[in-house]
Amino acid sequence: MTAVLELRGVSKTYGTGAAEVHALVDVDLAVGDGELVAIMGPSGSGKSTLLTMAGTLELPTAGEVFIGGQPISGLSRNEQARIRRRSVGYVFQDFNLLAGLTAAENVSLPLELDGVNAKTAHRAALSAMRQLDIEEKADRFPDELSGGERQRVAIARSIVGDRNLLLADEPTGALDSVNGEAVMRMLRNACQAGIAGVVVTHDAQLASWADRVVFLRDGRVVDQTAAPMEPESLLVQGS
Ligand code: ADP
Fold this sequence. Notes:
The protein is an alpha/beta fold. It contains 8 helices and 10 strands. Strands 6-7-8-3-9-10 form a 6-stranded mixed β-sheet.
């Protein structure tokens, strides 16, 4: 099976000479359809750089990034931008909803910016919102939604349309543990619906919601573990 995202021998060096920083060194990572991978590591270990490479925002210094089996370096800048717009969804720490747009308009915005007509974009937005169980709030404005509902809308926006790669940089960073777990559960569910996800987190408890945890140190993958047991299965066992 072709991985949705694959990094093969990826290195990224910033600066030159004495200022040279090896942000990523020979990283291999494959994330399949339906899989959620958590990235952990100390500050400066390369987590954001890895997301930048995965999102095709920059090209690696060495190695190759593949999205849906397609090597990114061989594409023109326009084609790279098209993959970013159509295949990749981002979830931000502060969720970044636009206050002047309804929930459905926020979710359909990435499609409309890509030239999809309003009616088709709206239909796709409602479908993504249905997956996140927030469809009934489609016409509300962000300040008429609870914090948890806003998170659902933001995650719906990251999977709207044909997006199949979800990238999240510390999406739980500003949340308490209960809301943090809720967001991880939603990301996990979004991935189960046929999307590959990569989430950066500092929190080992939250990382255990992922199928796999990848640890970075000094730009290298130092360990990869399958989560031994999902928090939900522990709950079931305990009940
Ligand atoms: P993390 O997300 O784990 O904190 P980063 O990926 O942000 O780590 O950074 C990894 C290393 O690369 C750090 O030493 C950082 O200072 C450096 N770095 C990241 N981005 C840049 C950049 N645009 N220019 C120069 N150095 C950078």
